[in-house]
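Exercise: predict the fold of this chain.
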Amino acid sequence: NVVNIFSPAGDYVGELSGEGDAGGGFSRPRAVAVDVNPKSDQDPTPRDDVYVADDSYIRRFPGNRFDRSWGREESEYSRPFGIVAGAGDLVYVADRSVPEGNRSWQGLIYDRYGTLRATWPLHPSGQGAGIATGLSQDPSGAIYVAIPGVHTIKKFTFNQSSLASRLEWVLGGTAGVGNDKFNRPLDVANDT
């Protein structure tokens, strides 16, 4: 249960340590996201902060160092599966719980400092259910969500000032092979 680091050429560089778990590693890492937003308007160098969704918490590693202060308390996460470090200094997480204790799958939006900014329903009324296992963001800021249990990929857009969400479309819905079918998609990516 480790998160390995590789160079762009595919060479092994090292591993991230969760510090504090038995054995010093992770419990069950499910997703990893890297923040490649520029450090500032004056410094275009990518931040390279790493976020790991692990069993019941999110861990942040700025510059490969463990940051205990990021995000919610460990007990507040239920099952974070998907995570993406997106544009506008926002981090999107697919998790089964929300602060009020609702156990349906929700999207959580944090700023890069770990403050919860908004939530959104991953399963709007009449749009099925299931574990959300993968998240991706396109250059316009839209978020794509993979939901294997109902064989779908969903696209959400957001109002950039209020962070209110809107379900744009759902692809799939029945298992199989074809242009509009998926067989339990676990993740989704965007080619930018």
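Check your answer against the key: The chain is about 0% helix and 40% strand.
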